[in-house]
Amino acid sequence: MVNRLKLLVRVTAAVLIGIGLNIYFGVVWIEASVGNTEHIVEKQSGITPFIWAAIIVGGCITATLSYVSWRKYRAEVKAKEARNKDKLVD
Hints:
Layout: H1 2-33, H2 37-89
Helix pairs in contact: 1-2
C-alpha cells in the first residue's frame, strides 16, 4: 500500500512538472516567434489565471486522493491486526 502512495506522488509530480515545462516552453516559443513585446505580455497575462486554476484544482484532487489512500491504508492495517488477534484467541 505504501508503494501505491509513492507511485501516486511520483505520477502527480511528473504531471505537474510536465505541465510546468509545457507552459514555460510555450511562452519561450511565443517570445521567439513574435517580435512585439507588448503582445507577449498580453499572452502571458492571459495564461496566468489558467496556471493558477490548474494548480488549485490539481492540488485539491491530489490532497483528496492522498487522504482517501491514507484512510484506506489505515483501515487495512487495522483489519489485518484484528485478523491476527482472532487467530491468537482460537
